[in-house]
Specification:
By secondary structure, the chain is an alpha+beta fold. The chain is built from 3 helices and 4 strands. It is globular and about 45 Å long. This is Endonuclease/exonuclease/phosphatase domain-containing protein.
């Protein structure tokens, strides 16, 4: 396979990394986000808003998100909180989906 790295961007703290590559001439963007536990959803919202112009149909966003999107990913005791609402809203505004939950 033909892999070519086009761009690598990261923040100074190492909380997010964006890699633009082409694989067999197909352009993809992979964004990794590791959130601090405090204000995680607002942090994710800020990062994704800042890089919104870099996100397209060939973007994969992965990471360690403290809030969960679905009840399947929470213990039965946990309610939907503000962090979950912010994360859901941000994902919806980016016209994105949780591919794992879509497939499983």
């Amino acid at each position: 396979m033909d892999f070519k790295t086009k761009t690598i961007k990261k923040d100074e703290e190492g909380h997010h990394l964006m890699v633009k590559r082409s694989i067999q001439e197909e352009h993809i963007t992979i964004i990794y986000i590791h959130t601090p536990n405090i204000e995680a959803s607002r942090y994710i919202q800020q990062i994704l808003t800042d890089i919104k112009g870099e996100i397209d149909g060939n973007t994969i966003i992965v990471g360690d998100f403290s809030p969960t999107l679905t009840s399947m990913d929470r213990s039965s005791r946990q309610n939907i909180n503000k962090a979950t609402e912010i994360l859901r809203d941000t994902v919806a505004k980016l016209d994105s989906i949780d591919i794992f939950r879509t497939l499983h």
